[in-house]
């Protein structure tokens, strides 16, 4: 059974506290959208959830396999798209799920096109297809709708709904409209307190940036 839980989690990055006291729990079929202004720490929270960044305080518990889609597409630019995606599908031992994932994101027809020749939105759809094909229980999506046209956003929403129906979890950070079934909000704004700003200023001054 998949689950993702944050208990009183804090995150320091770049010498400052980004957020603290973040708690939420997601079980099978549940989803949450992380909101907050630029720099609040949304991407950092997803990296903490993925286990790529250590929490400064609190506990992160994840049960199930995790897949993260962020701005790093991580596909070989010189390979045809399907071969580049197959590399990851093999690592995940999920070669059989790749055609359906490419179909779901509307990129099946791009299979022979080298990754370097794809448009921004097509590359984004490929990154999302990689997550869909991974078979991971917990999808971590950083700004998943950036660069996507309306049809692709709809495709992604459908893929997320199917994932949730199958018992999967979705945690997405976004500034834009993105419909996730029965999702809750994890808002980082309240954690950008004046205390944090003061600590940031102090940190800048300590590092010789006081005049900025
Ligand atoms: N690799 C890094 N090393 C050090 N500090 C970093 C790094 N990446 C981000 N930060 C710091 O973490 C802060 C939060 O960044 P993060 O990308 O998590 O915010 P965000 O809420 O996702 O922002 P945005 O809405 O602009 O995408 C940044 O302001 C920066 O100070």
From TrEMBL:
The keyword Membrane applies. GO terms for biological process: cytochrome complex assembly. Transmembrane segments: none annotated. SUPFAM superfamilies: P-loop containing nucleoside triphosphate hydrolases. Keywords: ATP-binding, Cytochrome c-type biogenesis, Membrane, Nucleotide-binding, Translocase, Transport. Residues 4-208 form the ABC transporter domain. It comes from the Bacteria. It holds the Pfam family ABC_tran. GO terms for molecular function: ATP binding; ATP hydrolysis activity; transmembrane transporter activity. The keyword Transport applies. This is Cytochrome c-type biogenesis protein CcmA. It comes from Sphingomonas changbaiensis NBRC 104936.
